[in-house]
Amino acid sequence: MEQRAAWGCVALAALLGCCAAQGAGPGAGLRELLAWKQVSFAFADDAARSRALDSGDFVPEHNAPLGLDVSGDRLFVTVPRWRKGVAATLNVIHLDDAMLRSDGPPAAPLLQPYPSWEANTLPAEGEGEGAAAGKLLSVFRVRADPCGRLWALDTGLDDLLGSTRRVAPARLVVIDLASDRVVREYALPDADLKPDSFWAHIAVDVTNATCDDAFAYLSDVGAQGLVVYSWKQNASWRVEHHFFNFDPLRGNFHIGGANFQWKDGLFGVALSAPDDDGGRTAYFHPLASTHEFAVPTRVWQNSSAADDYYAYRVLGSRGERAQSTASFIHEPSGVLFYTLVNRNGVGCWNTNKPFSEENQGLAAHDDKALIFPNDLKVCGGGNLWVLSNRLGDFLYGKLDPNEVNYRIFRRPVPEVVRGTVCE
Ligand SMILES: *[C@@H]1O[C@H](CO)[C@@H](O)[C@H](O)[C@H]1NC(C)=O
Ligand SMILES: *[C@@H]1O[C@H](CO)[C@@H](O)[C@H](O)[C@H]1NC(C)=O
Ligand SMILES: *[C@@H]1O[C@H](CO)[C@@H](O)[C@H](O)[C@H]1NC(C)=O
């Protein structure tokens, strides 16, 4: 990511110029379940917490939650190692009735390292790559599949914005959610890597009837490419296409109090429900772009067909300032949700309708609570989950520890889309 930052506040509302209805109140369109000024972790006891603070293993202001997914009553939250002092990169929160139902203020639970503290402990310098086996180092996004597995895409890098230490190669780590054990570790081979490769998003293509034939699609946002991983073959291949590239006219971001320029390529990959022969449509977009594209997943799954230029379709632009990170499809309705990082909101498009700017809805919008909506998923009975984390201010400015900086929202999909063009 580009780290050139220009300072100054921008009156976002004035720039939005958007047509859709804008609600009021925290995360209008969504319900704020969890909210933290700073996150803390479930240390064994106060002494362990004090030791971590004293040693610099835990620097609270360097811990920004970024990715999420839900499986049953477990909410997984990632905290990438942008800087030194991230206590644990993969964490779980046990959702209880009070968190889910209370109409009171949002909860601020401790993060419990997952699957264990041990697995989240960074190997010391000089320990070698072997010491990273079975560990989670720096995870941006995760995906819980319908086969009881959690897929984590691990960059292998500590202190990304500082000394940038490569602790291990970028890896796919898959954890069995029943036993909480790592069941597969796959380091991306050199053939899949480019000098600028950087791994921030994963989509998993599987149903509960095809658990042994799963595919994962890993977005290389740094080097504008895609890597396909086959569970059955335990092998991967790189895919290149012009449509994975950033748009040089769409790389300027005004988010929260920060203005910065990014040239991030392929990011969000959202999968349609499978068709009769099990193939899906992958809808995808680069981050520094406002365009959406589509390709059949069968194309990606065949390494000799995946680079076929003509298999890919341009859908069109989502509109001004409609840059997006993660996207996800609610399979029963076919509604695609996407973060609107440059508009403090969540967009939607009903994939049963033609793709056009008019058919893009604003599912949620809030100039305070939805500053940098970073990840979203639809899970657990059709709820849309969204995490916002003021990433622009975290990276380029200063977060105020007296303000709420990190939030997690949830709302049933039918309520989210009611009254929008996505209904
Ligand atoms: C999958 O491939 C990786 C990398 O080549 C290897 O380390 C691992 O043992 C393999 N796993 C299985 C289950 O074959
Ligand atoms: C598999 O998924 C389908 C559709 O979501 C569901 O109806 C079915 O009960 C699931 N089967 C199992 C064994 O979980
Ligand atoms: C993969 O693609 C190649 C090239 O288009 C084609 O010849 C081959 O039949 C495909 N393989 C499968 C299994 O579909």
Automatic annotation (TrEMBL):
The keyword Signal applies. Its main location: secreted. PROSITE patterns: PROKAR_LIPOPROTEIN (PS51257). Residues 1-21 form the signal peptide. One of its GO terms (cellular component) is extracellular region. The keyword Signal applies. It comes from the Eukaryota. Keywords: Secreted, Signal. It is found in: Secreted. Belongs to the major royal jelly protein family. This is Protein yellow. It comes from Gryllus longicercus. The lineage of its organism: Eukaryota, Metazoa, Ecdysozoa, Arthropoda, Hexapoda.
